[in-house]
Every structure is written in C-alpha cells, then in structure tokens.
C-alpha cells in the first residue's frame, strides 16, 4: 500500500513539474488523417513576444481542462497582463480549426487546418520538412524546453505568382527548393542552430 501511495505521489510531482504544450497538428480540411500542412506547438503559461507580430499567452482553462485560451496582445513588448487590451480565443481539445500564425508573406492562398491537443513533456519529436523553434535567450545550446515551434510537413509545397517553395528533410537536414518561373530551381539548406531571433528576445533554430 505504501509503495502504491509513493508511486502516485511521484507521478503527481512529475505532472506538476512537467512542461505543458498546446499542439496543433495539420489535418487537411479536418479529415481524420494527419496530412500535409503547417503544425504548431506553444508552451503554456509563458508570455511570448513576437516583435511586430505582437505577444501571446496560452493557458489551459482552469474551469475546463479540455479547453485552451489564447490571449493575443498587439503590443510587442506586452507582459501579457490580462488587464491589457487583448483578443481572446478558445480552443477545445481534439477539435479541428483553421489556424495560421507567423506564415511567410511570400506564400499565397494558404488555408491550414489543424487539430488541437495538450502534451506533457513531448520528448521525441518527429522530423518534418521545416521546423522553426524558439528558445530562451539564456539557453545558449538550445537544448532546454522550447517555447514555441512551427513546422511544415515533409514535402509540402507553397506557391505565389511566379514561384514554388518545396520543403523537405534529407538526412536530418532541412532543404528549401525554390523554383522561379523560367529559371532553374535552387536547392539550398536552410538549417540554423541556436541563433538570435529577429522576431523577439529569443534564440531560434531551423531544423527538420
């Protein structure tokens, strides 16, 4: 009996001390299968400043653990105090939504659907075609808990009037294939490890 109680207490401690994220995994037009698209992962209970794109705070609803509240503050230097002017949106676990954050302005007509989930200490993360990850500035090796990431599924293509962008992971290295009308395609690696971010007071990496 004592062993059972100790086991339960240890699991409670791990849950309390663990890092919780809200994930959005792409589902094309909210179909059953995970497919091509853009995915996101947000750390909870921490104010994130994205420069000109404003600030975000993500919290699990205290009254319903199946709901997540997103608070958006237009002030890029906001402290995410809820007394500040903000736009609030609520998402429900396992529901599918049209979502789009920090999308490259070079891409035209992108409509993205994703299903929301809550994840404790995600551990292994499957490689994708492109992954942009933010870390705390003091995490100089970018190995501690991440703050946020967005990813493009492997092999995804985006378009604009005269260009096509293909993202794929080859031997754990992310590549962008840029094809411009009437010109040869350019295949280049876009990998960066732990460099200063332009979108806020953070470090970022671009990986698979």
From TrEMBL:
Q: Does the keyword Signal apply?
A: yes
Record-given protein name = Transmembrane protein
> What is the top-level taxon of the source organism?
Eukaryota
The UniProt transmembrane annotation reads none
Q: Which residues form the signal peptide?
A: 1-18
Which species expresses this protein natively?
A: Dictyostelium purpureum
List keywords of the entry alphabetically. Signal
InterPro entries on file: CfaA/B/C (IPR021837)
